Amino acid sequence: MRHRRSAGAVVVAAVAGLVLSACGSETEGDPVGAGGPSAPGTSATVPAPSSTVGGSGPAPQVSDPVDVAALEQNPCAALSDEQTQERNLEQGESEPMSDGSPTCIYRYSDDSGSRIRFVQVQDFANGLDDVYARADSLAVFEPTEVEGHPAVITQTHQDDRGDGFCDLQVGLTDEYVVSLMAQIDEASDDYPQGCEVTEVLAGDMIHNLRGQA
């Protein structure tokens, strides 16, 4: 469950469950930098940093960017139909955030209420540099890597990862970030592994955009 192609692990860990699950629910907030209220385990509004050129700031550069054209046209192009079936997820549903940022919600098919929201945050015009610029205002800021792409695990007000929440910011290019916001319910076999779930699905997204799904 901890690696992209450990589909067996992901599904095994969730034999009755799903992918390692997802984020969102009525307590769901907005991603880092987006407008609107926030809730435990989600990101909230933070003052925007001064403008810079993506890739020239503090964040690691994306050495092997992917083509994000499909995502720009349809946020639910993040995962293929085969991937959602493999991960025991329902088909994605497009639903914009309050600030207009395109999103796609993937719900677990186990009726646990767990889900993952993929968000294309409009405030991140400078890619992960904009996420790094907000580091001091976040309760959790942990750089990581997914399939060779720089990423950051974040939490806004407090660390709720033990409750199944996790936000993962992934740099697909130096100027393009997708936020995966996970909420794993206690009813899911994947609870409380929200961060593992987001990393698995972020890896799936990267492979899908490269035509390797």
TrEMBL record:
PROSITE patterns: PROKAR_LIPOPROTEIN (PS51257)
Statement: the UniProt record of this protein carries the keyword Iron: no
Entry keywords, A to Z: Signal
Official protein name in the record: DUF3558 domain-containing protein
Region (Disordered): 24-64, 77-102
Signal sequence segment: 1-24
InterPro entries, per database record: DUF3558
Pfam entry (one): DUF3558
Domain of life per record: Bacteria
